[in-house]
What we know:
Order of helices and strands: EEEHEEEEEEEEEEEEE
Low-confidence stretches: 1-22
Distance between the termini: 86 Å
Structural class: mainly beta
Shape: rod-shaped
Radius of gyration: 32 Å
Strand order of the largest sheet: 7-14-13-10-11
Number of helices: 1
Largest sheet: 5 strands, mixed
Mean pLDDT: 80
Strand content: 35-45%
Amino acid sequence: FRSMSNLRLDTTSIFNLSTGTFSIDSTYFFVPSLAGQGSHSVTFTAYNQFGCSDSIVNTYFVYPVPQPSFTPLAATYCESDPAVPLVGSPLGGVFYRNGQISLSPAFVPSPNYPAQRLQGVAFDTISYVVNDRGCVNAASQVVQINPNPVVSFSGQTANNRYCLLPDSIELTPS
């Protein structure tokens, strides 16, 4: 083995003559977290039994992982609550609702209300995913959506039509 000290890492690198492998920190990988953010040139040098050598340099770019966030939502909503704008940072990310891309820049507690009502309490996960040069990270929040009570009432006639008379009409909630 020949030790090389031409890396800009706080590690030992070794070239194995018999296998032609390059090792950093006893593993056969470039470790971005050890290298740190920035541009890193790694030189791979091979030597043969005649004392001849050849080298190649690869440059690796290490980018920071994005730290996405979005305007916090309330912990609970009623299914009939109005839409809440979704604002994410940094710009350029994508919102997801329960793993599906959200085409709207707003959180709507129950998108099909009132045509389709919730049958019980629902929990939705809202995520904001940012991809910056292949480095991906997400911020997520779980919100609870509560169903509204079903309310109706009726008067004394079947069709709810009345004449303008001074009599009161009994209303029956159901």
